[in-house]
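We examine the record.

___
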Amino acid sequence: MSRIVIVSNRTPGKGPAAGGLAVALRKVLSNHEGFWFGWSGKLTETPSSKTHFEDIDGLKVAQIDLTADDHRAYYAGFSNSILWPSFHLRLDLATIEGYWYEGYRRVNQQFAKALMPLLKPDDVVWVHDYHLIPLASELRRLGAKNRIGFYLHIPFPTADALYAIPHHGDLMRDLSRYDLIGMQANRDVAAFTDFAEHQAPSTFATASTETIDFSKTEVTAFPIGSDPEAFTRLSTSPAAKKMIHRMRRALADQRLILGVDRLDYSKGLPQRIEAYEKLLANNQRFRRNVHLLQVAPPSRDSIKEYQETSDTLDAMAGRVMGRFAEPDWAPLTYVKRAYGQPSLAGLYRLARVGLVTPLRDGMNLVAHEYVGAQDPEDPGVLVLSRFAGAAEIFPEALLVNPFDTDETAEALRMALDMPLEERKQRWQALWAAATKHNVDDWALSFLKRLSPGIEDQAQVDKDTIYMASVA
C-alpha cells in the first residue's frame, strides 16, 4: 500500500497552530500510513542528514536540524529576501546575495539525503512551497522514481519577474522534475504556462542552450480553502461569544470593520489604513459610527523590509488617530499579536465588513474564514482585493484594486450602506463557493491527481485526511 510522505519547511509543533494556513491545514493523516518530514526548528553547529522521529499529537514526524548559516541563507536569504518578494511582484524589495542560492541548494540537498533512505518505492511524496522547489531534482539525482507532487502556496510570478530571480532557469528545471504541480489560482497556471511556452535564454546562455521540458509535468490550479463549517461552529462557541460580548460592550452601536493579516508588506496594510482614512474624510456621518480593528501579528521581523512595514503602519495608524479621534471615540485599534481561532471567529461574526486587501496573495484564507463565520440572517460584507487568489472563486465580494485607495474607500462605504437582502444574497453565493473549495476536498483532489486510487487503497475518510505546511 502506498504511503503519503508530506514534506515542508517546518514540521508541526505540539498544541494548536497559529496563522491562517497553518491552522487551516492542522489535521493529520490519521487514516493513511505515512509521515511528515521537515526541519525541526533546531540549529546545530555542523550539518547533518541524521533524521529523528517524533510522535506529535498522533502524527509521525521525521525531522532534521540545520546549521545557523545554512538556515540564514536558505530561509531569510534566498527564500524570503529573493523568492518571496519576486513571486509577489515586489522586485524593488528583493535583496540579492550570491551565496544565498548556495545555501538554499545545500539545504534542499540535505533534505533529500535525509529523506531518501526513508522512502519506499511506492511512496507518494507531496512537497510544499517555495522553500523546497529543488527537492524533486535532488531526490531524482539520488535515484528516486516515486510520484512526487509540489504545491505552491504563494502566487507564481509573471515571466518578467521570474527572469529577475537569480538561477531562475535552474529553479524552473527543478519544477519540471515533479509529476504534478498545484497552484492556487488559474492566473498562476497561466503565468507558468507563459514561461513554459516562451522561454528566453539567460544572460549567459549560449545558442545551444536547451529549453526546459515540461511535457511530463502536469500543472493545475487547486484552489485551497478552509473548513467553513468548522468556522461556523467556532463562531458560536463560548470563547467566540465572550469576544463578541467584549467588543459589543466596547463598540456600543459602532459597526466593526475588521482586518486580520500577518504583518507583511504583501498584505497592503498601509494602503488599507489610507483607504479607511479617506472613508472618514469623505463621509463625516461615519465618524463615531464605525471602528476599524486591524489585527497584524509580526512576521519575519528580522528582515529589514518587514521592520519598515511595521514602522510605516505605526505612523499611519497614529496619523489617523490624531486626525479623527475624539476624547470618547477612537477611529481604529491596531493590535500586533495573534488571537486564537475561537476569538477570531467571534470577531469575524461581529464584523459588518471583512477587509481583505492584499497587494498580491496566493489564496488568502482569511477571506474563507470570514465567510464561514457569518450569521446567515445578518451577514457582513467581504471587501476583497482583485489580486488575491480568492477573487477567482469569490466574485460576489466587493472586489477592489488595493492600490487605488479611493476605490477601496468607496467599497467600504458601499459595504456599510448595503441593505440586508443584498448582504444575504452575496453571502449565500460566497458560502457556496467556500464549501465547494473546502480544504478536505482540496487535499483529496490533489492526491487523487498525483496518484489515482490512493484514497481508495486506504479507505480515506474525507473528515480525517489533511496536510500540513508551515512557511
